[in-house]
Recover the amino acids of this structure.
């Protein structure tokens, strides 16, 4: 078959036309695709920003919670240290006030109370000084005081790291005393728990709050104060009820005075 030159030009023109038409259609299709997909891109960008913002807030909140927890732990630790410091300062102040200005040349042995009379039978106080950790020698029978001037009792037993103090208020224990400014002589009898009884003639004028002292140990020390007076009109005697001028449950330290 023989092709006419005009046919060749026709075929070539047709190909060029189809190519141009394809380009036009492709460009329009691209524009249409861009136009159709643009809302989806915008929505994707919007939610992407939201998700990023939310994740940033979550991460920031988590970090803040962790930092908050660390700060609370730090504050709690500092508060615990502060409480310990305050307790030590209070103990030091108590010791300075009670024993720092002792008028005697011989300084006492300061012992911490481990358990008081409410935790031990027979008016016994347990302290933390024994023959294994003493600063100086002391022995059974040595006098024991509280707050420098209040007579408590005597050392009853000495172990390696602790000692037992027998209070003068042990039931039945008798100790000579004087009462008030007039120094009325009397005999105090222990009733337990830091309490004593004294029996005197009813004619003697004794007031509640009068101090009861023990002058027979070289220096004048206080055994207690008059807490109540029982006067029976049918009896020629009166009964005085003595108590310590402090709460035994709050006693933290005692002073052992070696003989």
């Amino acid at each position: 078959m023989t092709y006419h030159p005009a046919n060749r030009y026709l075929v070539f023109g047709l190909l060029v036309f189809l190519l141009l038409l394809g380009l036009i259609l492709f460009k329009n299709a691209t524009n249409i695709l861009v136009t159709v997909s643009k809302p989806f891109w915008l929505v994707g960008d919007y939610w992407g920003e939201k998700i990023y913002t939310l994740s940033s807030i979550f991460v920031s909140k988590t970090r803040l919670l962790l930092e908050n927890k660390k700060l609370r732990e730090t504050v709690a630790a500092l508060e615990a240290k502060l409480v310990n410091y305050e307790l030590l300062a209070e103990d030091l102040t108590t010791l300075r006030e009670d024993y720092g200005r002792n008028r005697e040349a011989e300084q006492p042995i300061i012992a911490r109370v481990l358990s008081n009379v409410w935790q031990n039978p027979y008016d016994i106080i347990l302290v933390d000084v024994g023959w294994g950790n003493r600063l100086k020698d002391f022995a059974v029978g040595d006098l024991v005081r509280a707050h420098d001037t209040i007579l408590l009792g005597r050392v009853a037993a000495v172990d390696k790291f602790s000692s037992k103090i027998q209070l003068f208020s042990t039931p039945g224990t008798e100790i000579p005393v004087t009462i008030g400014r007039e120094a009325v002589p009397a005999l105090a009898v222990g009733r337990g728990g830091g309490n004593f009884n004294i029996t005197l003639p009813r004619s003697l004028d004794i007031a509640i709050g009068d101090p009861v002292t023990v002058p027979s140990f070289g220096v004048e020390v206080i055994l207690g104060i008059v807490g109540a007076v029982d006067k029976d009109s049918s009896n020629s005697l009166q009964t005085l009820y003595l108590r310590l001028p402090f709460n035994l449950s709050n006693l933290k330290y005692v002073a052992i005075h070696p003989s």
Remarks:
- DSSP finds one helix and twelve strands in the chain.
- Residues 1-101 form one domain.
